[in-house]
Write a structure and sequence with these properties.
With 73 residues, this protein is an all-alpha fold. The protein has helices at residues 2-12, 38-47, 52-72.
């Protein structure tokens, strides 16, 4: 998942287009099919070098912005 998020950020060239999923695939090393895997993923991202402000964007801000845009449509 960390490499996948790295790739998305690199290819989309906009951090605001990426957010942490609330579930992860069964084949992912961070095995969880629900929101309980998110803290493990966030810790893996922090261990990989992601700093707190970026983690906040990925874990909350970007998702809320997407939700806001969806509700306005």
């Amino acid at each position: 998942m960390v490499r996948h998020i790295d790739y998305l950020i690199d290819k989309l060239a906009r951090i605001t287009s990426v957010s942490v999923p609330t579930s992860t695939a069964a084949s992912c090393p961070i095995r969880s099919r629900n929101v309980t895997g998110v803290p493990k993923l966030l810790q893996a991202l922090a261990d990989h070098g992601y700093e707190a402000p970026l983690l906040t964007k990925l874990a909350r801000d970007n998702w809320l912005a997407c939700l806001d845009r969806s509700l306005k449509e």
